[in-house]
Amino acid sequence: MRRLAAALSRRWRAHFHRYAIDDPRPVADDAPYTYFLPSENELLAVQPEDMVKLIFRGIPPSPEWGAERMWVRVTAASRHELQGVLDNVPSEMQQLRPGDPVTFRRSDIIDLIWAEDRDPAPPAAPPRREYWERCWVDDCVLNDGARVHFLYREEPAPPEQDDRFPDSGWRIRGDYRDVDDDAVNARASRYIALGKVLNADDSWLHLIDAPAGSAFLRNWETDAFEADPD
User: Fold this and answer.
1) Tally of CA atoms within 13 A in the half-sphere of 224 that contains its CB
2) What are 7-43's pLDDT values in tens digits?
3) For residues 111, 117, 118 and 124, what is the CA-based torsion angle, rounded to 10 degrees?
4) Distance from first CA to last CA of the chain, Å, rounded?
5) C-alpha dist (Å) from residue 164 to 26, 159, 189, 193
6) Region(s) of the chain under CATH 2.30.30
7) Read out DSSP for the chain?
8) Which pLDDT value is given to residue 2?
9) Distance between CA atoms of 48 and 54, rounded to whole angstroms?
10) What contacts 139, CB < 8 A, 6 or more positions away?
11) Distance of alpha carbon 94 from alpha carbon 90, whole angstroms
């Protein structure tokens, strides 16, 4: 009777409270320098007993959080579709409880933990550079679609006590053609991860390891950055 009651409870929740699993690929495409997904080889290697993280979105949405990232233990796997059971206690979603069955695609996975006794070991992902060091950048680059116009690198600021990531020393100005100096100097700016700037405009990525003291100005006719001796 308990098993029957549990099964009926799951069906009731599935009928009256639905959920969707987000496809993370569009977000990764929009933020390739800050939002990282497992490699294709890793996704293809997932098999039963591995743990995977998915993005669950309630229908209707939860009152505070639009979605929750939760772990699922894989129980069955085909080439594209997998099945598992929820291995998290949801913070808000009433649609799911630990142990509930979940069906999803390999492409839905945003993170994974291999089962401890796996044999053979899954393929290792290639090393990936991340860009969490901080920089100062004009808000217009991040929010208004302005391209990087001028950038220079100074000696990084000393870290504060609670800093998780160091200052890179980069200072980045957005397009200031036809803008007077007072307006440029009055622009709002933000101290943020280099990866956030690269998500908006990565045309200067090849310069990112230039030493302190470097400065570059975009030549708008060639669309190339040129060293600025001044």
Assistant:
1) 3
2) 444 444 444 458 999 999 999 999 999 999 999 889 9
3) 60
4) 81
5) 28, 9, 20, 11
6) 2-113
7) -HHHHHHHHHHHHHHHSEEEE---HHHHHH-TTT-----HHHHHH--TT-EEEEEEEEESPPSS-S-EEEEEEEEEE-SSEEEEEE-S--SS-SS--TT-EEEEEGGG--EEE--TT-SSPPPPPPP------EEEEEHHHHHS-PPEEEEEE-PPPPPPTT-SS-EEEEEEEE--TT--HHHHHT--EEEEEHHHHHHH--TTGGGTTPPTT-EEEEETTTTEEEE---
8) 54
9) 16
10) 187, 188, 189, 190
11) 8
- 133: confidence class by pLDDT, cuts 50, 70, 90: very high
Does residue 219 surpass a pLDDT of 60?
yes
Structure tokens at 144: 């208004």
pLDDT of residue 118: 78
Distance CA 146, CA 144 (A): 6
* CATH entry 1.10.12 includes domain 2-113: no
- 153-187 pLDDT, tens digit per residue, is 999 999 887 888 999 999 999 999 999 999 988 99
Q: In the prediction, which pLDDT does 25 show?
A: 96
How far is it, in rounded angstroms, from Cα 168 to Cα 163? 13
- In 3D space, the residue among 163, 116, 156, 107 whose CA is nearest the CA of residue 136 turns out to be 156
- Determine the pLDDT at residue 121: 66
pLDDT at 10: 44
